[in-house]
Amino acid sequence: MSETAGAARWQLRLYVAGQTPKCLVAFANLKKICETYLTGQYDIEIIDLLQTPALAQGDQILAIPTLVRKLPEPVRKIIGDLSNTERVLVGLDIRQLPR
Amino acid sequence: MPRSARPRSKAPDSLPKAKTGIAGLDEITYGGLPRGRTTLVAGGPGCGKTLLGAEFLVRGALEFGEPGAFVAFEETPEELTQNVSSLGYRLDSLVAAKKLHIDYVRVERSEIEETGDYDLEGLFVRLAHAIDSIGAKRLVLDTLEVLFAGLTDHALLRAELRRLFHWLKERGITAIVTAESGQHGELSRHGIEEYVSDCVISLDHRVSQQLSTRRLRVVKYRGSQHGANEYPFLIDDGGLVVFPITSMGLDYGAPTGHVPTGVEGLDAALDGRGFLRGSSVLVTGTAGTGKTSLAAGFVNAACARGERCLYFSMEESPDQIVRNMRSIGLNLERWRKRGLLRVQSARPTLYGLENHLAAVYRATTEFAPHAVVMDPLTGLGAIGSDREVTAVITRLLDFLKSKQITSLFTTLASVQADPEHSDVGVSSWMDAWLLMRTLESAGVRRRALYVIKARGMRHSDSIHELHFTTRGLRIEPAAVVPT
Questions:
Q1: CB of B153 less than 8 A from some CB of A
Q2: pTM exceeds 0.90 for this model
């Protein structure tokens, strides 16, 4: 891997609305997937829309929970509690990581 | 303060309503949409759903002091602002004044991966934010059905919509949700009407004989009476206009007093005083009998008394009428200059029937004339079936009468048919009917005028001969009874 450390880092954003069971499950699932496939190369930012509702507009959030891959580009969105690992990996395009 | 029952205009509705401010719609719904409830507006593409929603919010903000939020699923705020600017609405200034909030919700299936359990709390958060940021009392969701295309789990979507409508009700928001109508006559493609139970309005846009007509129908309105017909509506540069514009019917007052006809000798034939003020007059005649001249004489006399006249011409341009009438000594230009006369010309086939009605409505409301002339009414026959034309004329008459405006209409009769029978449909709506025809006798073509009917007055039964003079028109009892 020749990219600089900054460019290679994954920036993930998880949108939740309070600490609902769905949101907690989503966070746990995300953590697990990242630890398994993106060890040491990711940042997770949690945005609670109940605290900052204005942020929902920017990323066009509709469903909760929604995971947004900000980097690497292009931006991707995955909705749901992330319980289907296969689809999360496809959605995040993680399969293509070890180029 | 219970007044004696007036069944038509004031329904004994306890249901609180929110006025839309849309011309005509508040009349049909007896006061507006159910306050604090959700109304479904369904219709095909391009039938005016978005504009109806936008006008509901704009008028709510401007006229009723109720800020509104527009949640668009199909158009960006820029597109929406641009699209309604053609109606004279400045959304951007309303947004700046915190009277309107526009949120664009983009749902793109290709960008969304579904991986397990979710809900639409994000949408709720956005709606709550939109509502709270300006203290919105009104909300438009246009069109919610986009969600069905963007998300695969329709069972979940339906449950969430149910929750959404309940949530809006709890917050006391008067909302409009729009939906695309189904291809097989369903009100909405995904059956949203099942969740919106209070009020459903259907819009329709059809083209018949190359002319488009828009129609609006209140399909249901729980707990309220409403007009059940299909009502024509149109979208012009002032927004939506639904007909009837005012609560039309036969409950207008009958003004007393007379209006001179402007034709020398005709007043004498009509009880000695002319037309009844606020009445409708039909002038039927074959080609070249002087219908327009008679109308111009009427207008000239009214303006000379200082009254305002509105003249709709279907055949001649304003300048042409002014020029032609100069030949019989009528100087109409001075009335135009003094602002007493407004001549409006439009080919009948230029618009649909409803547009003509709307043009009359708008001009009449703006100009507040004492008298209106439509010359000739016959032209409307070219753009609608007899029934449609009759319906439009009836509404037009009701409207003018409710404003106590004296109206004069001309129609062209064919030479072959007995003119007395050619306008039977229309004439029965009119208060007075003058018939003009040419008669040949002793090598001369003479113009004859009869008063066929004149409600509320003893009119002459004589045949009169009509003369064009240098000072207008004059009639006198025919010296020789023409054969």
A1: no
A2: no
